From TrEMBL:
PANTHER family: REGULATION OF ENOLASE PROTEIN 1. This is DUF1349 domain-containing protein. It comes from the Bacteria. It holds the Pfam family DUF1349.
Length: 200
């Protein structure tokens, strides 16, 4: 959206710094540490909170966008956008490698995590944008690839009084060394309506 303003990578702070970062022009290149993830209990029985997230304040009535490119090839490789209140309340949305394909998905955590996903084989090795819009008591998550319309990913609760942060995230639960190129990090006004296309 033309009302968004792009953030400098230095305008945010790392939760769990990655193995390596580098600035390439205006892009941020991130390399993950070994066996990193965000998850709480459900189905797997463990709690993980050591993935990498570069976070800045997400006030009420704001939207955040992250664009990235990654070559996933190992089970559970993932990258996208995180919205976080604390270690027990957070949302991550993006692309994750599972069953030999990239999947568009989201995990919403309120003490325990859930997981929803859908295969997007044509999104492999393409620029992906994830958008989270905060309005009222909800977060609306959308995603798209360059030149294609937005897809609705998730509508999830987030208390309007909660102090939240948001920004790009990535992790690699089965290895080290996933490399992600983040090309954009922007903040702007929340979407006007749940079913309205937020535009370009």
């Amino acid at each position: 959206m033309d009302q968004q303003h792009e953030l400098d990578w230095n305008d945010a702070a790392w939760l769990n710094p990655p193995l390596a970062t580098a600035v390439d022009g205006t892009d941020l290149l991130v390399t993950t540490r070994e066996n990193t993830d965000f998850w709480r209990t459900t189905g797997y029985g463990f709690v993980r909170d050591d993935g990498h997230a570069l976070l800045t304040a997400l006030p009420a009535d704001a939207a955040v966008e992250v664009t990235f490119l990654a070559r996933f090839d190992t089970l559970y490789d993932q990258a996208g956008l995180m919205i976080r209140v604390d270690e027990r309340r957070w949302i991550k949305a993006g692309v994750e490698w599972t069953d030999g394909l990239p999947h568009l998905g989201a995990v919403v955590t309120h003490d325990r995590s859930d997981w929803s996903l859908s295969p997007v084989p044509d999104w492999d090795d393409r620029l992906v944008t994830i958008r989270a819009s905060r309005a009222g008591d909800a977060i609306t998550v959308r995603a798209r690839t360059e030149g294609h319309p937005w897809r609705m990913v998730r509508l999830a609760p987030l208390p309007p009084t909660a102090s939240a942060t948001a920004g790009p995230f990535c992790c690699s639960p089965q290895r080290a060394g996933l490399q992600v190129r983040f090309t954009r990090f922007a903040l702007g006004p929340a979407d006007k309506a749940l079913h309205e296309d937020p535009g370009t």
